[in-house]
Amino acid sequence: MKIIDTHCHPYLNRKKSLNDILENFFKNSWEAMIIIWTDLENSLESVKIAKQNKNIFVTIWIHPCDIWKLDLEETIEKLENIYKENKEKIVAIWEIWLDYYRIEKDSEKFFESWKIKDKQKYISETKIKQKYFFEAQINLAKKLNLPIVIHNRESKDDIFEILKKLDFKNFVFHCFSENLNFAEKLLDFAPNAMISFSGIVTFKSAENVREAAKNLPLKNILAETDSPYLTPVPFRWKQENEPIFTRYVIEEIANLRNKNTEKIAEEIFQNSKKFFNI
Questions:
Q1: How large a percentage of the chain has pLDDT more than 90?
Q2: For the whole model, what pTM was predicted?
């Protein structure tokens, strides 16, 4: 079975070393992984790791928690330079997002610690700034002819409006957590976009996600772990997630569609290679 984990953070695993995780993945003949780093500076570290293994690729992005301390123009220029110097390893702009859930949580934390006085003003201004950075990174992706990987939490409608506004269709919704209707709406707008499923698809309680995985066109589906988070069944609650567990995501997609796992794995593998140009 050929497998690409299209979205993982193996360096965040607390119980296994990065080297052990990578070794475990590749000794099982899995094909490749795309490592997602957490900030601009560490993106350079991820590139170093990728250059040591021909089957590891990375992305570059601006973490939304950093937007208050960054100069947007300067940061976009840094991202562009990193890409130009490492084209063979950087496959997307990620993970660009609107995360309204996090804004609400942060507003509570900051309000309680008296770092902010007006909670609603903080929420409003942060949403505006996230949108500003979101659009800037889409424009960078256009310029570099790269796809974007979208993180969405309680912000799907605003994300969709921005994608339409900028007429940008080269995207994947990572760790999809919405329903089939929204996925179909995305694909009506962008027929070659991707919907990526994580370990959530193995959770019996995630009926909306499972319905989407069952019914969407297979040509629009990717698989990921988002490790070390969202460990799939049968290891949920038992251990941290890691890239090798991508197989359980793919197996569940095959089960939901009542299809042969090997055939589903091969199609998802080809989708991954084509979308990320690897």
A1: 73
A2: 0.94
